[in-house]
Design a protein that fits this description.
Order of helices and strands: HHH
Low-confidence stretches: none
Organism: Gloeophyllum trabeum (strain ATCC 11539 / FP-39264 / Madison 617)
Mean pLDDT: 85
Strand content: under 5%
Protein name: NADH-ubiquinone oxidoreductase 9.5 kDa subunit
Shape: elongated
Radius of gyration: 30 Å
InterPro entries: Nuo9.5
Keywords: Membrane, Transmembrane, Transmembrane helix
Oligomer: single chain
Number of helices: 3
Helix content: 55-70%
Largest sheet: none
Length: 80
């Protein structure tokens, strides 16, 4: 039977490695941490925003509204 220290050795070594990387190259380490949090935030942030009362903005119109009247022929500026 393996001892408790042997079972947790990979986790301890990983923790030490991450600690060393955070000290030696913090920009790369913390950018990886923030990148790893992305999928978690994708799942958790929208429900939290909904609970706090966030209402999404209405969609931007993609067409110009056509007036509800007959079209007049264009006159002027060499259109005769």
């Amino acid at each position: 039977m393996a001892s408790i220290g042997t079972l947790f050795s990979p986790f301890r070594n990983t923790y030490r490695y991450l600690q060393r990387q955070a000290h030696e190259s913090p920009v790369i380490f913390f950018s990886c941490v923030l990148g790893g949090l992305g999928p978690f935030m994708l799942i958790t942030v929208p429900p939290i925003r909904e609970r706090l009362g966030y209402k999404p903005a209405p969609p931007i119109p993609t067409t110009y509204p056509i007036p509800n009247r007959p079209r007049r022929p264009v006159q002027g500026y060499e259109d005769e």
